[in-house]
Write a structure and sequence with these properties.
This protein has 2 domains: 2-87; 90-207, Arc Repressor Mutant, subunit A, CATH 1.10.10. By secondary structure, the protein is of the alpha+beta class. Helix 5 packs across helix 6 (123-132) and helix 5 crosses helix 7. It starts with a helix and ends in a 6-residue tail after the last strand. Helices cover 45% and strands 18% of the residues. It has 9 helices and 10 strands.
Length: 221
C-alpha cells in the first residue's frame, strides 16, 4: 500500500516527495542533469536520483490521479503523461512552430556532436531558421518571442543563462525532453501545419490576434 511505503520515508524524504510531485505536475519533465551556465557543465540532479530510488512509490501515487510516470534512462528524463485528454496543455501556433524548429535544430546539431549531448542555439538563430524554412516572413514581435520561449522553458524544453528571451544573442540550451514532446511522427504533422499556411508569416505581431491552437504534445500533463 502507498500509505505504508510513504510512512517508511524519513520526514525529509516525505517533504522531497511532496515537492517533486508538485514540480512534475507543474513542469511535466524532470532531468537527470542540470546545466550550470556559469561553469559550462552539468551537475547531477538529486531530485532525479530520488525519484529513481522511489520510482514505484511515485508511480503508485500518480496512478491514483490518472497520471503515468515514465522514464528514459538513456536520455536521463523522467516525465508524466495524463490519461485524460482535457488535462493536456495546448500551445498556440507561434509556440508550436518554435518548438518544431527547435526540434529540427536539435537533430541537425546532434549529428555534428560525437560526445556531448548539450545542444545550443540562440534566439537569433532560431528566428533565422524559421525564416529560412518559410515558417515566417519576418521576425515576430518581442512579445511573441518572449511569451513563447517562456512557455517552452516552463515545460523544460529550453533553458538560458541571464538575459532577455527576445535578445538575438541569448543562448538557448535545447533539452533532450524535446525528443519526447516532438516525436518523429509529430514532425510529419507539423509539416502539414506549415503547408496549410502558404506564404509564411504564420506568427502574428500581436499575441492577442492568435486564435489558432495546436496540441503541443501527447506527453504534456
Amino acid at each position: 500500500m502507498f500509505e505504508e511505503k510513504f510512512e517508511k520515508l524519513s520526514l525529509t524524504e516525505q517533504e522531497s516527495f511532496r515537492r517533486i510531485i508538485n514540480w512534475l505536475l507543474a513542469h511535466t519533465y524532470l532531468l537527470q542533469g542540470n546545466y550550470v551556465f556559469d561553469d559550462s557543465m552539468k551537475r547531477t540532479n538529486p531530485d532525479y536520483l530520488f525519484v529513481e530510488r522511489q520510482f514505484g512509490l511515485f508511480q503508485d501515487y500518480l496512478e491514483y490521479s490518472g497520471f503515468h510516470l515514465e522514464r528514459d534512462s538513456n536520455y536521463g528524463v523522467i516525465f508524466i503523461s495524463s490519461t485524460y485528454e482535457y488535462n493536456r496543455v495546448k500551445f498556440d501556433k507561434a509556440t508550436t512552430l518554435m518548438l518544431y524548429v527547435l526540434r529540427l535544430i536539435y537533430e541537425e546539431e546532434r549529428e555534428k556532436l560525437s560526445l556531448s549531448r548539450d545542444i545550443f542555439t540562440s534566439t537569433g538563430d532560431l528566428v533565422h531558421k524559421m525564416i529560412s524554412l518559410g515558417v515566417i516572413k519576418k521576425k515576430p514581435s518581442n512579445l511573441v518571442l518572449r511569451d513563447s520561449l517562456r512557455t517552452l522553458n516552463r515545460f523544460r524544453v529550453i533553458e538560458k543563462p541571464d538575459g532577455s528571451w527576445e535578445a538575438a544573442d541569448t543562448k538557448l540550451l535545447i533539452l533532450p525532453t524535446i525528443l519526447f514532446i516532438v516525436t518523429n511522427e509529430r514532425i510529419s504533422n507539423m509539416y502539414k501545419l506549415i503547408d496549410e499556411e502558404p506564404g509564411g508569416d504564420m506568427i502574428p505581431e500581436d499575441e492577442e490576434d492568435e486564435e489558432t491552437y495546436q496540441d503541443a504534445s501527447d506527453s504534456l500533463a
